[in-house]
Amino acid sequence: MIQQPQKNPCIRCGKDRITVDVHKEKIGGSLVTSTKTACPDSECQALVDLLLEKERLQRERLVNMNQQHIFRRGRKKTKNIH
Ligand SMILES: [Zn+2]
What we know:
alpha+beta; 23% strand
């Protein structure tokens, strides 16, 4: 039986996600366990994967937009000083 360190409900259906993969590796002298969890419903998990990918892309776009905004503001400020 695979031990589940913490409850991790699926963000879509709320079912308890199951641990599909456990990796143990030593990083800097301490043992680090990384677990990969998935929804017991494989169709739901596929949708969750899509959702997370979409969110990741949106976040990336947002970060890029913010950086451009700061860059533009910074240039404007410099312009005003001179
Ligand atoms: Zn689910």
